[in-house]
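Form 7-S
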Amino acid sequence: MSSSDKVSAVPQRRGFLKQIAAIAGGMPFAPSLVGGVVAGASFDTAATPAAAQTPQAAAPVAGYISFSQDEAAFVETMVTIMCPADEFTPNGVDCGLAIYIDRQIAGDFGKGAKRYLRGPWAVGKPQQGYQLPMTPEQYFKAGIAAANGACQAKYGKPFDQIALGDASAFLTDLDAGKVSDPSLSLASWFNELVYPLFTQACFADPIYGGNHNKVFWKMIGYPGLPATHTVDMVQFRGKPFPGGKDPKSIADFS
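Output:
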C-alpha cells in the first residue's frame, strides 16, 4: 500500500471512534494520554505517534477464551482499524477491545442466558431486533466466517491480510449493507452486534478487559466511580471536571 493510501485511510478509520466519542458526551479530549505498542507485526507502526508508543503502567489482560486463531486475527484487525493508535489512545488491541469482546461472547451474554431460543423462527421486522436461532456467540462467529468469505472473494485474502485501506473500506461497506452473504445479513450483524460490543469495549469499566488504563474515560473526562456526581454535573456543566484526570474503576474500590 502506498504512503498516500495509508494517510488517506486514517481519517476514515478514526471516524469510527469519533462517532462513539460524540455519543458518549462530546467532551473535549484530554491534553495527553499514555499509549501502548501495536500488537502484531501485520500493523504499520512506522507512523505511530511517540505518545502512543509509551509503555503502559500495567499490562492488559491477555489470552482469548472464545476466539479461534482466525477469529482473533479478524477481531484484532477490526478494532485496530476502528481505533488506530494516535495521540489520544493506543490502538484497539492495546486498549483491550478484542479481549473485552471475547470475554462478552464467552460469558453469559454470548451463551444466550435468559434469551428465548426455542423458536419458531419466523422472519421478524427490523424493530424487533435479534431474531435468530443462534446464541450471540454463535452469531458473532458466523458473521466473522461470512465476512471473511466475502473478503476472500473480493480481495483473494482473509480480512486480516489485506491492506489497511482496503480493510477500512470493507468495514465501511459492511456498515452500509454493501457486503452480502446468503446465510445472514452482514449489515445487521455489524451494526446490531459488533458495533455495540465495540462501543461497550471502549467505555466499560476496565475490569471487563477493555478501556485499558481507563484511557477512554480520560479521553472524554469521565470520572468513573462512585456514581455520586449529580451536583458535579450541574456545577461543571460545559467545563472540565478535575476528577476526569484520575477516574476510578470498580477495581479501585475493591
